[in-house]
């Protein structure tokens, strides 16, 4: 039996864990965001980390694959999100070591583990799995626009990589704390690794983006909430297509706009300015009304990681008064975050 796997990412039970997080040779924390995200939101699934000379760390115990397997790990999870999403040749020996130690290997990168001949041969010989997360389920439909039962919240952004996943995870957790029937719906590789399932929206052919979002968040009980991880930004020249397909297909009843104060230009495109929060609310509501005329904005989530607590609190209070909506940092939580949760659920 062939043990090599390109995993359709909609099956939570197919991701083996606990994980040993692989940091490669990463020197910039931003390129280890997958590892940090899994550590922050799925700590119970992590036993340690290892690398080939990385200068960043998750703070987890450093282990060899053999030590991790003995400690209960069942897979190496590639925690690197590098430019181009490529598997570096210098990593291959480490993955072979992990396979020989009894671990499967999980990747969310663009090029696939199964296409690396040395890894494919080793996995085949040992009966181990190479699991590529960025493989959408087969047979995705074209979007229908049919109104579905249940309630939905979508995190949207002024730009990429500023907190949509963390916002969705924090809101889903807060809903659950209040006794709300809720699911976090992952749409990117890190979210899928945290949740154990989802659909990688940036790997879906554009014609099927909206349909994939409909599959991801199906009909549900009237009081059930799906909190959906956002992708990209309607204003980003490179990534707006996935953002619009996700918006139309998820049919959100509520959007929460994510923003990083102080960011002036779009990620990777310094000639394009970040839009205002007001523009972002208006465009998302205008486009979202196409499939849900009742869509509304529940508030704004700020990424204030670069500010001290007093500065962040003052800014969020001022912006809340200016915009007439709750403004909170989902990681700092506090009263402002509770007000945001109240607004989303009302």
TrEMBL record:
A Pfam family (short name) is DUF1611_N
InterPro entries from the UniProt entry = DgcN-like, DgcN-like_C, DgcN-like_N, P-loop_NTPase
- Annotated membrane-spanning segments are none
Would you say which domain of life the source belongs to?
Answer: Bacteria
Which positions fall inside the D-glutamate N-acetyltransferase-like N-terminal domain? Answer: 57-136
Q: Where is the D-glutamate N-acetyltransferase-like C-terminal domain?
A: 142-335
Q: Can you say what this protein is called?
A: NAD-dependent epimerase/dehydratase family protein
**Source organism per UniProt:** Sphingosinicella microcystinivorans
Lineage in the entry? Answer: Bacteria, Pseudomonadati, Pseudomonadota, Alphaproteobacteria, Sphingomonadales
